Amino acid sequence: MKIRLDKYLADMGVGTRTEVKRAISKGRVSVDGACVKKPETKIDTEETTVVFDGQTVGYTKKEYYMLHKPAGVISATEDAREKTVIDLIVSRKRKDLFPVGRLDKDTEGLLLITNDGELAHRLLSPKKHVDKTYYAKVQGIVTQEDVRKFAEGVDIHEKKLTAPAVLEVVKSGEVSEILLTICEGKFHQVKRMFEAVGKKVIYLKRLSMGPLQLDETLMPGEYRELTEKEKDTLCSVEKKQ
């Protein structure tokens, strides 16, 4: 693929188009060993070697990161007042990354960050029914009756009941601990499901999305690139659904 040099560098996160153009005009960029000062120079993303300030800048089309989202950070690409999940991905090569789906500001856990729009669309499509598993602490005693109700679907004040969900009681008490697997992604869904049975979620963490499971070695705020196996599994499984 052939694109302009300034777009190439901007795509790779070197700077804004304006900043990149200024750097090119100052002779800070070389293409295949020759200094280039024209931002409009067309280059081949597959064949050309681009060097910026002595560092080779490889062109990456798709990026995939597993983020352990911490509480207090919003699931957005940018915000004038709040820190976003994209702000946490400091090693990103491209500027077109976005979170696949959303976790509430106070919710922790697995969040996929990518620039693969097609993959994101399929993972989030209501028709795909991609399972998502959460761990939660709930104010109130979670009972087997709650397990039954969740399996049948509960009324969260929408046109339809929620789709059947698998609720597992890890610990039942004044503060219960549960695992919940749902196949939808409605607004505040887990919290609203427990409110429907008279209880309140006081802590929520997503553990998995489809075959992708949160790396237990990642602390809140940490991230890593997906392994090739994880990428292949994630893509292949959701395409079959």
Structure, explained:
One of its GO terms (biological process) is enzyme-directed rRNA pseudouridine synthesis. The chain contains six helices and 15 strands. The chain is of the alpha+beta class and 241 residues long. The chain folds into three domains: 55 residues, RNA-binding S4 domain (Structural Genomics Hypothetical 15.5 Kd Protein In mrcA-pckA Intergenic Region, Chain A), CATH 3.10.290; 89 residues, Pseudouridine synthase I, catalytic domain, N-terminal subdomain (Alpha-Beta Plaits, 2-Layer Sandwich), CATH 3.30.70; 78 residues, Alpha-Beta Plaits. Strands 7, 8, 9, 10, 11, 12, 13, 14 and 15 form a nine-stranded mixed beta sheet that branches. Helix 1 packs across helix 2. The radius of gyration is 22 Å and the shape is elongated. The model has no long low-confidence stretch (mean pLDDT 93).
Number of β-strand runs:
15
Kindly identify the CATH topology of the largest domain.
Alpha-Beta Plaits
CATH class of the largest domain: Alpha Beta
Cα gyration radius (Å): 22 Å
Percentage of residues assigned to helices: 10-25%
The secondary structure category is alpha+beta
Round the mean pLDDT to the nearest integer and report it.
Answer: 93
Shape: elongated
Specify the CATH homologous superfamily of the largest domain: Pseudouridine synthase I, catalytic domain, N-terminal subdomain
Domain count: the total is 3
- Name given to the CATH architecture of the largest domain: 2-Layer Sandwich
The major beta sheet can be summarized as: 9 strands, mixed
How far apart lie the N and C ends?
32 Å
H/E topology pattern:
EHHEEEEEEEEHEHEEHEEEH
The number of distinct helices, counting runs of at least 4 residues, comes to 6
Estimated share of beta-strand residues: 25-35%
Q: Can you tell me the residue ranges where pLDDT is under 50 for at least 5 consecutive residues?
A: none
